[in-house]
Write a structure and sequence with these properties.
five-stranded antiparallel beta sheet; 2 helices
Length: 93
């Protein structure tokens, strides 16, 4: 795994539209998704490129920064579980 200077970007679960958009990505499709610096919860989101694998099992996120491209991969099932957890139960917010 490559080492990146701060900030390291992670998927932005704070944005419900971002989560909803991601859920709708079909196998083989790409879309712009939002990420944020891992250690700065107040930072504004940054656009990144997300792509669901052709078989639908993986979701790859690539963030282009001045220091290069940071990328990370989720299994589709884990990402969907994480979205559900972060979104919470409808009607509780």
């Amino acid at each position: 795994m490559a080492h990146f200077d701060e900030p390291v970007y992670i998927y932005d679960f704070r944005s419900i539209p971002n989560c909803n958009k991601t859920e709708g990505i079909k196998p083989g499709e790409s879309a712009t998704v939002l990420v944020r610096p891992e250690k700065d919860l107040s930072a504004p989101p940054v656009q990144a490129q997300g792509r669901r694998s052709d078989d639908g099992q993986l979701f790859e996120i690539a963030v282009t920064t001045d220091g290069g491209t940071q990328d990370h991969t989720w299994t589709w099932e884990t990402l969907m579980d994480a979205i559900k957890v972060h979104r919470g139960t409808p009607g509780t917010r």
